[in-house]
Amino acid sequence: MASSAIASNSTPFINQVKNAMTMTEKIFARASEKPQLSPGENVWVNVDILMTHDVCGPGSIGIFKREFGQNAKVWDREKVVIIPDHYIFTTDERANRNVDILRDFCTEQNIKYFYDIKDLGNFKANPDYKGVCHVALAQEGHCRPGEVLLGTDSHTCTAGAFGQFATGIGNTDAGFVLGAGKLLLKVPPTLRFVMDGEMPNYLLAKDLILQIIGEISVSGATYKSMEFVGSTVESLTMEERMTLCNMVVEAGGKNGIVPADSTTHKYLADKTSLPYEPVYSDDKARFLSEYRFDVSKLEPLVAKPHSPDNRALARECKDVKIDRVYIGSCTGGKTEDFLAAAEIFLASGKRVKVPTFLVPATQKIWMDLYSLPVPGSGGKTCSQIFEEAGCDTPASPSCGACLGGPKDTYARMNEAQASFDVFSVCVSTTNRNFPGRMGHKEGQIYLASPYTAAASALTGFVTDPREFLQ
Amino acid sequence: MAAASALSNPTFTSSPTRLHHHHSLSPLSSIKLPNSSEQPFKPLISHPPPPCHQPLRATATPTPTTSTTSTTSFHGICYVVGDNIDTDQIIPAEYLTLVPSKPDEYKKLGSYALIGLPSSYQTRFIDPGESTSKYSILIAGDNFGCGSSREHAPVALGAAGVAAVVAESYARIFFRNSVATGEVYPLESEVRVCEECKTGDVVTIELGESRLINHTTGKEYVMKPIGDAGPVIEAGGIFAYARKTGMMPSQSC
Predict the structure, then answer these.
(1) Residue A232's closest CA among A262, A265, A200?
(2) How far apart are CA A179 and CA A74, in angstroms?
(3) pLDDT tens track, chain B, 253 positions
(4) I want to staple B183 with a disulfide (CB 3.0 to 4.6 A). Which of A457, B40, B113, B158 is the partner?
(5) Do residue B28 and residue A87 have CB atoms under 8 angstroms apart?
(6) Rounded to whole angstroms, what are the CA distances from B63 to A262, A389, B8, B76?
(7) A68 contacts chain B (CB < 8 A)
């Protein structure tokens, strides 16, 4: 399946080869104001957007103040985006305090984009509140082709869906960027993933990225860029491209990237008025290796406990009994993820057999669940279909139980379930299944697409969605 | 960070303690950061460090330790973990409400280091009732520190008293965060030492020689050189290094 075809010796046009760059290299070149760059070079990169949230923001702010001074100002109040999203709906005092720290900082610095929440009892009373940062960044128009976005969260790579360079950094680096507006970064070499073929109606982008991670392992792209091209990728919506790029960090990738096209421009049309300039990989650009997939031949997948590269076909796991399903997060809590789940529930006409938790990523997505008609349903909304199927009521938008969080986090995997001999087993549309990721460290997490998650909810076992879609 | 680690365990003597001087840093708000067309700071190689801020990495045992990387050594007992130890196992998400830049919370993070390891790790990294670990050297397999970008991960290890990790390989962000904070040396082994060492083995790391010595088994291993990251970690992270080398202004020491 995977073939490695390296362009290095394939052409006599030396000059073209010398000047050819991948799109990630071009973004680095522009951001460092250099005409030409090669993988491995360390360059100072100008940052277009720095994003931080309630878990890493306070520490980043602490470092910024300690190092640049108590009265220092951020380098650009319009380029810092601060999004409380991780530990919001909790009584944990320190978690609440951390949101207060963000608010005080944003007031002091006059930060333009701060998506605040004050009334924790009713998220809808907070018009500024968005929810999960990576989805909010896209919905608010902060993801623009050709730019550099750094964030204090490993899933910042999600924004590569827009043809921008986006990667996660730590508090100390973020503290530096807050003061300096730039960061020393190494230009990564690029792995290219060419996905062609018509996407079967039972697959989602989650299956594609689980396929890739299973192929190259959880460290297969460490320090590398992952570029996604091919007719299948071109056919994906922006939300699906975000799912694809979201999980490159689960392969160790520095960034994931999809070339901008008409789908990108259309999505951005009503979200940003700032000019942007997409870049594209040259025909003769060098790729470390190239992987080709015929998507029409793929099947629904899961990643079994306790690693995102522990790939298996969903149908191979049909005997795995589960006790909950979780649909949410930056990976699998977007509008289309819920529409996909609703499609399965609608097609089956049945009720779920295990508790099914729904956590929309953002306030806008929550609204979509209550307003958008599900295709083929005669005008029903997702929320109506979920209610008829016996799912839990969609929860307040946040990162929720994807990463466990404080003990009182909604849908967190806490103690082992009484009905199970050992531990809780969850099928989840989230991104990681390392031990303890969703709370209890002996909990078993099967990562899957929203289709597979919904199908599994209906049977109480890991289930291939083709059981309901054909 | 250096300043916080100096506060972390001043009385603890059975594990390595970093004796960084707690110096006051000069605010940078007064300096003008250059435009993007210029290099923001002076080249990394110029300006020898001012003598006033010499960080010291001491070890728990009487082994003498000097302040230069070439002769720095760490001596202690090791704790051994396997492949793909992710950040949730190093510091579970429920403890991320602790803010590493606050000294008291830094210390608390240390007390939870590696608490997320499954119960199959019967010997726990931190003994019950303790707030730091008796293991000053962590030995790991492939892809150590994968998962989230939380800087709390190297911070928790550093705050617990870990001086160095020796792994087969690292996840990118964990490596970078280790260097940026100066919390732990992320050293790479040439071979899978995680299968050669056992928790509790007495080991020495000779940093300058890139050598790991297991005194319990009598074996020695070659590590990959830490290179230019070494002096940054020794200084206590990128900011401390930048001041030490004159890239950033330093107040009177």
Answers:
(1) A200
(2) 5
(3) 333 333 333 333 333 334 343 333 444 443 444 444 444 444 333 333 433 333 333 333 334 343 444 579 999 999 999 999 999 999 999 999 999 999 999 999 999 999 999 999 999 999 999 999 999 999 999 999 999 999 999 999 999 999 999 999 999 999 999 999 999 999 999 999 999 999 999 999 999 999 999 999 999 999 999 999 999 999 999 999 999 999 888 754 4
(4) B158
(5) no
(6) 65, 67, 22, 10
(7) yes
| Residue A322 CB contacts under 8 Å (≥ 6 apart), including other chains | A354, A425, A426, A427, A446, A456, A460, A461, A462
Closest-CA residue to A221 (of A209, A203, A238, A236): A209
Cα A357 from Cα A450, distance rounded (Å): 12
Tokens of B94: 């429920």
ipTM summary value: 0.93
Which residues of chain B make contact with A152, given a CB cutoff of 8 A? Answer: 149
- Pick the residue from chain B with its C-alpha nearest to A47: B36
Integer Cα distance of A73 and A65 in angstroms: 9
Q: How far apart are CA A256 and CA A159, in angstroms?
A: 8
Q: How far apart are the first and last CA of chain A?
A: 27
Number of helices and strands (H, E) in chain B? 7, 7
A94/B149 Cβ within 8 A = no
Q: How far is it, in rounded angstroms, from Cα A317 to Cα A298? A: 16
Contact A59 B99 (CB under 8 A): yes
Contact B97 A307 (CB under 8 A): no
Residues of A whose CB is below 8 A from B170? 222
Cis ω for the linkage preceding A134 (within 30 of 0) = no
With residue B73 as reference, give the H or E element that holds it.
Answer: strand B73-80
Can you tell me the distance from the alpha carbon of A447 to that of A449, in angstroms, rounded to the nearest whole number? Answer: 7
Please report residues of A whose CB lies closer than 8 A to that of B168.
none
Across chain A, how many H-helices and E-strands are there? 16, 17
For residue B244, give the H/E element and its range: helix B238-244
Residues paired with B224 in a beta bridge: B188
Cβ pair A336, A239 in contact under 8 A: yes
Name residues whose C-beta falls within 8 Å of residue B199's C-beta, 6 or more positions apart in sequence. Answer: B78, B79, B80, B123, B135
Coil, helix or strand for A59? helix
Measured between CB atoms, which of A72, A152, A176 is closest to B238?
A176
Nearest CA in chain A to B28: A68
